[in-house]
Amino acid sequence: MEYLKKADVVEQTSSHDVEQTVKSIIENVKAGGDDAVREYEKKFGDSDRPVRVSEEEIEHCIRTLPEEVKVLIDRVVERVSDFAEAQLNCLTPFEKDFGEGIKMGHRIVPIEKVGAYVPGGRFPLLSSGPMVVAPAKVAGAKRIVAASPANYEGGIHPAVLYGLIRSGATDIFAIGGAQAIAAMAYGTESIPEVDIIAGPGNRFVAEAKRQVFGKVGIDLIAGPSEVMVFADDSASPQKIAADLLAQAEHDPYARAILVTTSRTVAEETEKAIEGFLKTFSPSSPAHESWEKRGEIIYADSLQEGLDICNDYAIEHLHLHIKNSRELMDKLNNYGSLFLDEGSSVVFSDKVSGTNHTLPTQKAARYTGGLWAGSYVKVMTHQEITGQGIQFLASHAEDQSEIEGLEGHKLSATVRLT
């Protein structure tokens, strides 16, 4: 393994500073409710509008948004919903006998109140709302509270707002940042308290989700976008370069990484990236992302490349390798896998149907991404009768005696006949 280009990671703000800032915001929102939320919206977003999106705004959005944009968003909602429904159907309630008089099972129950955070970002990302909200709707959530920054002409961008409406959001608030997470976690006079908060965001949003976890559930803590392309000598440097830059342009802190068994592909890809970047806007985050966080890694063998992929546990893993499907069972740590050079990560970002809210920073070692199952509870139950009572009570009595638990032993003993 050899780094032909290694990341030079530079953080803007220390994690301690972010942690303390977010802690203060959460405490103030808990104490001050709507007033505190409005103060932070003025401070961070220069917004003094009402926090709730009104029916009039929604009607105006639907009326004025171009039909061709609505068609695109409707297609995203449909495809994300279809995939979420197929996933949910894999979760099956059951009940069966586990011995005479011992009946056990589980039910699949929707989480009732969902908080959906949809970042504003540099551009109005049409898929962001559907990715977070549509699976909750499919799962059967009764109330879906959506929050997105008011960073477009004093409100939420009409395309983002339309996506939230079409996906099934029941309450929409034009607020962002850590204050939005705090408001949904603890509730305010206007903003309902929820049971789980899902959706990506910046470092302050991610830290806020970490701090409110326990008070509410969260999906995962997702950081800036990550992509790793694993390529052999059959790969196209032009396509690799395009795929790396597509994710690099999300954020200056995004990570775009090439792992390849071909030095020629590595060299030609770096040249292609430099060429493409000359055509990008000077303000594009891709410039800083690639300069400071981009990496090119040469692997001595296919197996070493696979080991690197599994070690990085990257968000998006794209195989530009011939017969890449044959490698799928050897890859265990990734947010989402893209087989062959035709399967662009951009398709998943936009419309293919798999969710683009995925684990970053090696979290793929222990979790997958957001899905319909994130919005349900698997709740077990049991019914013990007849001979089952005698069998289990006898065991529990003996075990409780060994453990010195008098109350447990008593509860078992009184059932023995």
Explain what you see.
- With 417 residues, the protein is of the alpha/beta class.
- It has 3 domains: 15-94 and 109-218, Rossmann fold (3-Layer(aba) Sandwich), CATH 3.40.50.1980; 224-368, Nitrogenase molybdenum iron protein domain (Rossmann fold), CATH 3.40.50.1980; 385-413, no CATH class.
- 44% of the residues lie in helices and 17% in strands.
- The chain is built from 14 helices and 14 strands.
- Strand 7 (196-198), helix 7 (203-212) and strand 8 form a beta-alpha-beta unit.
- Helix 8 packs across helix 9.
- The chain starts with a strand and ends with a helix.
- The model has no long low-confidence stretch (mean pLDDT 96).
